[in-house]
């Protein structure tokens, strides 16, 4: 991400926030089917029962091949159980097949195949279209290849695996969202952030053919995802979903698009879990989560750089809320002059600054960040059973972006700082913080402060020097957190004791 200093100073233990880039590797209703919404599944069809079924170890891609060999997208970001969606596929081969895998735990297999289709006739679809006013690329002119039923598909996060006759494969993600979230933790797929970094067609919200200047100002869901089709999901979400399903707690599933488009999505839910990178939020998303928190909804921010970019949703020819607008600069956004509260730049910036720390507890402070996650409060209830001590550190866990306490800005109180980690921010020394706060409703909010919290659940497979000790630590803490969130408002059993002043004065 890129940012500039606005009304609020971003001082983290006396250090000013430096601006950095964020380009690195690693209720959408869509068309209306006219069908009645099916009732929610019975309790017996919950997460534990689903994960007791045999998994399908063979769910990964065997060979990606060249992009043009096979790629595709769905005309729905999410569907309710039993609804259909259309699949748009382009391939240079005569035909293709498709399989649907529900992602979960399944005894370690981490997926279960729930559906497959017989071989379909293939066709090469037209080139991307281009809207010069917003630099938006789209594949909305593609013809639908097939309609996919979701009868008997349980709620959850899915990957469709497309296989061309040549053997090349790509994923298409789809979420079967929960019709009722009452009494459950809502797992939120960060679909707006997936799309913001989607370079399919040569443009995303960060770059175009010439660089930053001709980047998209609006990105469309009417196109495939680049690379393997599910990079952001695999890097920032899949390990946490596997762990959450392994716990057996009651889960519900939704996407950023659903949070924006479905006003009652969080009614009765016990908690909301945002995963490794959930950066792009609309006003409706932020308002609904804040209001739900103030009614007692627990929240876990397992990543960093969340709620940093303000966006607007728009419609495309394929359906509602399939366009994400983010100019990143109020001077470019025409809405800044007519409706300043809806201008699309960082939430913390003018023309109406609303720093994300007001919801998260901490806020984005660094890219590129590198450092060891360093424990400050080993006695905290979230760290029970981890055997950590004050100063215990886990190499490589902080990065590539981080959050820290926002000294001088809006911060909920009482707030505790669980980890206070020295980091290198592109040659500038800074710190990253994990926080926990509670509010009058009893809700508790945890923020990991690092984008590698979910990645660390893979241990050494995460790279960056992350160890298997970090895997055990993050898995244990997350398990403790999710189980506690399901029991009711965290603040009733675990009220926070304010440490805001201690951090700003002592730095540790």
Element layout with pairings:
Blueprint lengths: L10 E2 L2 E2 L30 H5 L18 E5 L3 E2 L5 E7 L3 E9 L7 E11 L7 E3 L4 E3 L7 E3 L7 E9 L4 E8 L8 E5 L1 H6 L21 E3 L10 H6 L1 H10 L3 E5 H6 L9 E4 L5 E3 H11 L4 E4 L7 E8 L2 E7 L9 H4 L18 H4 L1 E5 L2 E6 L18 E6 L3 E4 L9 E11 L2 E11 L5 E4 L20 H19 L3 H4 L6 H7 L2
Parallel strand pairs: 4-12, 13-15, 13-16, 16-18, 17-19, 18-27
Antiparallel strand pairs: 1-2, 3-5, 5-10, 6-7, 6-11, 8-9, 11-12, 14-20, 19-20, 21-24, 22-23, 22-25, 25-26, 26-27
Q: How many strands appear in the DSSP assignment?
A: 27
The general outline is globular
Strand proportion, as a percent range, falls in 25-35%
Distance between the terminal alpha carbons, to the nearest Å? 28 Å
CATH homologous superfamily heading of the domain at 1-27 and 177-190 and 237-308 and 346-508: Class I glutamine amidotransferase (GATase) domain
CATH architectural arrangement of the domain at 1-27 and 177-190 and 237-308 and 346-508: 3-Layer(aba) Sandwich
The largest sheet is:
9 strands, mixed
Helix content: 10-25%
Going across the biggest sheet, name each strand in turn.
15-13-16-18-27-26-25-22-23
Given the helix and strand composition, which structural class is it?
Answer: alpha+beta
SS element count, helices? 11
Mean pLDDT over the full residue set: 91
CATH fold category name of the domain at 1-27 and 177-190 and 237-308 and 346-508: Rossmann fold
Rounded to an integer, what's the Rg over CA atoms? 22 Å
């Amino acid at each position: 991400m890129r940012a500039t200093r606005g009304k609020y100073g971003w001082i983290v233990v006396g250090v000013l926030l430096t601006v950095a880039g964020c380009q690195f590797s690693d209720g959408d209703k869509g068309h209306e089917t006219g069908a009645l919404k099916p009732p929610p599944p019975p309790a017996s069809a919950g997460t534990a029962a689903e994960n007791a079924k045999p998994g399908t170890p063979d769910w990964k891609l065997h060979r990606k091949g060249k992009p043009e060999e096979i790629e595709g997208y769905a005309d729905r970001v999410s569907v309710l159980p039993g609804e259909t969606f259309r699949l748009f596929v382009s391939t240079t081969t005569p035909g293709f097949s498709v399989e649907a895998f529900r992602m979960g735990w399944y005894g370690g297999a981490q997926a279960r195949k729930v559906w497959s289709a017989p071989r379909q006739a293939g066709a090469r679809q037209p080139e991307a279209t281009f809207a010069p006013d917003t630099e938006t690329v789209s594949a909305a002119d593609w013809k639908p290849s097939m309609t996919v039923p979701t009868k008997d598909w349980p709620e959850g996060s899915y990957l469709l695996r497309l296989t061309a006759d040549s053997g090349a494969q790509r994923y298409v993600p789809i979420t079967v969202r929960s019709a009722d979230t009452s009494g459950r933790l809502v797992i939120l797929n960060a679909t707006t952030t997936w799309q913001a970094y989607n370079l399919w067609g040569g443009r995303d919200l960060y770059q175009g053919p010439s660089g930053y200047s001709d980047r998209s100002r609006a990105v469309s869901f009417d196109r495939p995802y680049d690379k393997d089709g599910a990079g952001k999901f695999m890097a920032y979400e899949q390990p946490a979903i596997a762990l959450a399903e392994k716990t057996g707690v009651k889960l519900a599933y939704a996407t950023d698009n659903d949070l924006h488009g479905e006003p009652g999505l969080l009614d009765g839910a016990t908690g909301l879990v945002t995963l490794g990178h959930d950066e792009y939020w609309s006003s409706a998303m932020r308002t609904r989560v804040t209001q739900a928190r103030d009614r007692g909804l627990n929240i876990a921010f397992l990543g960093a750089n969340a709620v940093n970019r303000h966006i607007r949703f728009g419609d495309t020819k394929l359906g509602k809320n399939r366009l994400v607008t983010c100019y990143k600069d109020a001077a470019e956004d025409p809405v800044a002059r007519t409706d300043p509260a809806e201008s699309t730049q960082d939430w913390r910036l003018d023309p109406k600054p609303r720093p994300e720390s007001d919801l998260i507890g901490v806020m984005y402070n660094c890219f590129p960040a590198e450092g060891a996650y360093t424990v400050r409060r080993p006695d905290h209830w979230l760290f029970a059973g981890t055997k950590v001590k004050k100063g215990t550190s886990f190499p490589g866990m902080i990065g590539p972006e981080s959050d820290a306490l926002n000294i001088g800005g809006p911060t909920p109180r009482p707030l505790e700082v669980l980890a206070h980690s020295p980091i290198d921010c592109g040659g500038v020394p800074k710190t990253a913080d994990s926080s926990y706060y509670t509010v009058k409703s009893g809700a508790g909010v945890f923020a990991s402060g690092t984008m590698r919290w979910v990645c660390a659940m893979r241990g050494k497979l995460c790279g960056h020097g992350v160890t298997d000790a970090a895997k055990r630590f993050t898995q244990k803490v997350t398990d403790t957190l999710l189980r506690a969130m399901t029991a009711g408002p965290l603040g009733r059993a675990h009220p926070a004791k304010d440490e805001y002043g201690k951090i700003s004065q002592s730095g540790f």
